[in-house]
Amino acid sequence: MTTFELSPVTAAANNSKLQEFFVDQLKDIYWAEQKLVKTLPKLEDAAHSAELKQAFNSHKFETRNHVSRLEKVFDMIGVPAEAKKCHAIAGIVDEGEEIIDETEDNTAQRDVGLIFAGQKAEHYEIATYGGLVQLARTLGYNDAAEILGVTLAEEKRADSLLTRIAENGINVQAKEEVNED
């Protein structure tokens, strides 16, 4: 394990309620990122649009890096990397699976639903990483804050890409699909 010199303020913060909350949230997002590494290939397979498939594929590789970065942050703060079930992401993943089950293969409607599920996950991650960056700074973990900030920027870009894919055609295509019920 790599050790870092802690300032007196940071050393005192290591035993604080804020430190405990920070570590708890790291464990939560660590579980979420690991779950998304397993889920993104399913979303890619279910997507019809080549552009959406590529977006999910690219983000799968980014997400693997997010897991590695979180492990580095755990190491930096001297805490073992441990996952704690993230009920929010678990629910979003379940919702994504329902969308796949309840929509027809190869339809824009399914792609719209997959974009919704993807953006719900991104928004959760953006909120979590944004909060973690601020807590890391407050606790004196400036190097960790920088690492978490890189992931935050990637999550924001992924969200923007999904919005562009929806706006640039999938939503219109879904509007034009006829309901056969």
What does this structure look like?
The protein is mostly helical and about 180 residues long. The chain has one domain (about 15-170): Ferritin, core subunit, four-helix bundle (Ferritin), CATH 1.20.1260. The protein has helices at about 10-15, 15-45, 50-75, 85-100, 110-140, 140-175. α2 (about 15-45) runs antiparallel to α3 (about 50-75), α3 (about 50-75) runs antiparallel to α6 and α5 (about 110-140) packs antiparallel against α6 (about 140-175). It is elongated, with a radius of gyration of 19 Å.
Global morphology = elongated
Overall pLDDT metric: 92
Topology pattern, helix = H, strand = E:
HHHHHH
Percent in helix: over 70%
The CATH homologous superfamily is named Ferritin, core subunit, four-helix bundle
Distance between the termini: 60 Å
Query: What Rg do the Cα atoms give?
Result: 19 Å
Domain count: the total is: 1
Q: Write the CATH fold name.
A: Ferritin
Main beta sheet strand tally, sense and closure? none
Beta-strand percentage?
under 5%
Q: What is the annotated CATH architecture?
A: Up-down Bundle
Task: Record the SSE blueprint.
Blueprint: H1 8-13, H2 17-46, H3 50-77, H4 87-102, H5 108-138, H6 142-176
Helix pairs in contact: 2-3, 2-4, 2-5, 3-6, 4-5, 5-6
Descriptive tags:
181 residues; mainly alpha; 81% helix; elongated
Report a brief summary of the structure:
The protein is mainly alpha-helical and 181 residues long. The chain is 81% helix and 0% strand.
